[in-house]
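[Automated response] Your request has been received and processed.

Submitted sequence:
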Amino acid sequence: MSEESWKRSLSIELEMKRAQGLTRIFLVPGNHGERFVNEQLGLDGNYVVTMSNFVGYMLQEVTRLKFEHVVILGHFGKLVKIAAGIFHTHSHIADARMETLISNLALIGAPLSLLQEVDDCTTTEAAIELINAQGFQAVYPRIAEKICDRVNQMLRFSDSPPQCDAILFSFDNQVLGTNRPLSAITEGFR
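Generated structure:
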């Protein structure tokens, strides 16, 4: 399937959800996100639409279809890219995971030694272990907030952009960070 056909098929699913009357939606990169919504948040999977790597395209579609609320939910390693303004998250397009993480760690006062250790990591999971061990978990909600800031900036010329929230989790299905309290984000989905 071509990339354009793939994107269109994702958009059709979004159109179907809107036709069913949904006004809020979870956009997830793939199956891990869908499982997380069902198993960890205990929410109906009907609210979930896969965006794959096409974050920007799907956000434009959410706006075109006049959804009121979009939650971007996924593994930290995929979504941290959005905090850097990367709206196509495939690694062959752009990959600024560690750079984004390091700059945000620096802004919350992490020591140079941690920044250097994170820079040497090949995976975000390895970086998460270091960050957690040294007590700098405040970086996760900061990145969730930046994700929403980037989305709002991207959609700033839209007539009625949706409210945006972000939920970041680790491979062991732990919520790492959100832009506002998790209960406030999920309230309208119950």
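Summary generated for your ticket: Residues 3-19 form the longest helix (17 residues). The first strand starts at residue 24 and ends at 28.
If you did not submit this request, please reply to this message.
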